RNA sequence: GGCCCUAUCGUCUAACGGCUAGGACGCACGGUUCUCAUCCGUGCAAUCCGGGUUCGAUUCCCGGUGGGGCUGCCA
């Protein structure tokens, strides 16, 4: 039986899940699903100082909102301290790790000296060279201690990355990494290696920023005598300034994007294409389709700039694909936020209104300001009511005769398909021009320079009992504002 | 500074070593039209530089340069 593919997403709860983390999670999820394997969630909460309240909940909630549910976990490293201690002890016993009692002060001084001497900062193995006696004494004292990995010099460490190919390091460059901190917590390096092994992770999928510490991990696997999982380092997500995407670049937390009205499916689709693509000219993919298409060998090597314009395009596409019911559901919070009391109105009306603006939305959060005129009387800018250089008098006359005409049309006929031919015929028969009537009519209805067409607006209002009344009232009000 | 990763339009990217280097976003223009959006069409726009291998290099190799990451008892 072939080995089951197992991937993991291993965030640390130091803040809201950000967009780069989402992409890493997505790739790990896609690969596991594509291979019929398992996707595991592991919380790397080994740094008590940086742990942020609510971050854990946010990570779990966000993954759920994006349908990236884990098959196993979440495991919490903070609950596995005894395990790491045991393995750290094993390394001590095997003499590949050693106790270090150096104080922060000593370490800082050493660091400064090395910088001043222009040599790469590295621990000087001071405590490795302690006499047996001294070590025993210190061990029995209450002096703080850490466990460090003893890295031998002069060795080549080579590993094969699934996206970058072969990567080589010299052990001379590698510091004697702390594995177990003085507070008894493991560092990332120990904890992730131990857990990836214990949890039978077959593929480690993580960001490129981990490449430099991978040789340390390789050394640990070798020291334990464990198999090394396959490694896939993903190209970084970059800001417009080509730096690693971080909080400094504005909105990077997934939560903020969702709150702005980006749809999870759109965000996922967009982010999937940052560093990977299916080699077809198709760009709109559902999560299920991404699962089907995904493979590690299609991952790119170079970092990808996070481009909001393209995200907006994806989001617009997804918004346009929403049906009326979903559109209403997704827009509801934003309508409420805009103080629009839509719940007392007929659902048919509200849906029609939303459908009218659907093709104009890039983000759901824009909906409030877009549809406001349907729920509040417009305020007119007299100049806006004028079509090109048409005299005010003509506009007034046209609007008045149009109002008279609309009076004769039954509300049931307030449908674009019926109203438009009717009105256009009337305009023609009355020897008026389309623009001289329809432009001011549209402005009368919306109060806006740009809006859906007048027939569409009238159809929406036509759903209301007093819809025709509202229409006529607005036309009248507009004519009063002409002078 | 040291180490590592990396390099195709402004951005995301495609191109068994072989056609005028393709698509998408954005931008510009045009069509549909009463405006805007949608939709459709057109256009602008790229192989970082220098060597080498080869009949032929965006592709392979070397060097440079640019960009990025790491260099914590952070992850």
How does this structure look, described?
The structure is a single chain. Helix 18 (454-462) crosses helix 19 (467-480). Strand 6 and strand 7 (165-170) form a beta hairpin. The longest helix has 16 residues, at 19-34. By secondary structure, the protein is mostly helical. The mean pLDDT is 95. The protein has helices spanning 19-34, 55-65, 81-93, 104-116, 132-140, 188-198, 214-224, 254-259, 264-272, 287-293, 308-320, 324-337, 347-358, 367-375, 392-407, 416-429, 434-446, 454-462, 467-480, and strands at residues 6-9, 38-43, 72-76, 97-100, 146-149, 156-161, 165-170, 178-180, 203-207, 230-234, 237-238, 304-305. The strands form 5 sheets. A 3-stranded parallel β-sheet has the order 1-2-3. Strands 4-5-8 form a 3-stranded antiparallel β-sheet. It binds one RNA strand of 75 nucleotides through helix 4, strand 7, strand 8, strand 12 and helix 11.
Number of helices: 19
β-strand number: 12
**Main sheet specs:** 3 strands, parallel
In order across it, which strands form the biggest sheet? 1-2-3
Q: Helical amount among residues, as a percent range?
A: 40-55%
Computed Rg: 32 Å
Judged by helices, strands and strand pairing, the structural class is mainly alpha
């Amino acid at each position: 039986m072939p080995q089951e593919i197992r991937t993991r997403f291993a965030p640390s709860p130091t803040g809201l899940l950000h967009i780069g983390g989402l992409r890493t999670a997505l790739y790990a999820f896609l690969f596991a699903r594509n291979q019929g394997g398992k996707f595991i969630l592991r919380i790397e909460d080994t740094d008590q100082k940086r742990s942020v309240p609510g971050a854990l909940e946010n990570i779990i909630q966000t993954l759920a909102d994006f349908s990236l549910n884990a098959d196993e976990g979440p495991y919490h490293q903070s609950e596995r301290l005894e395990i790491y201690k045991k393995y750290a002890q094993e390394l001590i016993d095997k003499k590949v790790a050693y106790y270090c009692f150096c104080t922060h002060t000593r370490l800082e001084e050493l660091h400064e000296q090395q910088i001043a001497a222009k040599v790469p900062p590295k621990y000087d193995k001071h405590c490795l060279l302690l006499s047996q006696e001294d070590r025993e004494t210190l061990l029995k004292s209450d002096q703080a201690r850490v466990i460090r990995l003893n890295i031998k010099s002069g060795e080549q460490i080579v590993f094969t990355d699934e996206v970058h190919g072969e990567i080589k390091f010299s052990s001379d460059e590698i510091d004697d990494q702390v594995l177990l901190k003085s507070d008894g917590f493991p560092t990332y390096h120990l904890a992730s290696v131990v857990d990836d092994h214990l949890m039978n992770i077959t593929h480690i999928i993580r960001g490129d920023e981990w490449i430099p510490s991978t040789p340390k991990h390789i050394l640990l696997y070798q020291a334990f005598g464990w198999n090394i999982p396959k490694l896939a380092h993903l190209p970084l997500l970059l800001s417009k300034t080509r730096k690693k995407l971080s909080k400094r670049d504005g909105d990077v937390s997934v939560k903020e994007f969702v709150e702005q009205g980006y749809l999870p499916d759109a965000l996922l689709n967009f982010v999937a294409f940052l560093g990977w693509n299916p080699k077809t000219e198709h760009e709109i993919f559902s999560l299920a389709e991404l699962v089907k298409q995904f493979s590690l060998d299609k991952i790119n090597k170079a970092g990808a700039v996070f481009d909001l314009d393209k995200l907006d395009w994806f989001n617009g596409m997804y918004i346009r694909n929403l049906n009326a019911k979903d559109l209403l559901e997704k827009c509801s919070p934003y309508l409420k936020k805009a103080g629009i009391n839509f719940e007392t109105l007929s659902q048919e009306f509200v849906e029609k209104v939303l459908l009218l603006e659907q093709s104009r939305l890039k983000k759901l959060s824009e909906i409030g300001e877009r549809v406001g005129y349907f729920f509040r009387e417009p305020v007119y800018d007299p100049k806006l009511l004028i079509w090109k250089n048409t005299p005010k008098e003509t506009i007034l006359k046209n609007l008045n005769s149009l109002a008279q005409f609309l009076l004769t049309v039954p509300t049931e006929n307030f449908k674009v398909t019926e109203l438009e031919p009717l009105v256009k015929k009337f305009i023609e028969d009355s020897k008026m021009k389309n623009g001289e009537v329809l432009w001011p009519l549209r402005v009368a209805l919306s109060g806006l320079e740009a809006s859906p067409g007048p027939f569409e607006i009238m159809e929406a209002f036509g759903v209301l009992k007093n819809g025709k009344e509202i229409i006529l009232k607005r036309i009248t009000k507009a004519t009063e504002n002409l002078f």
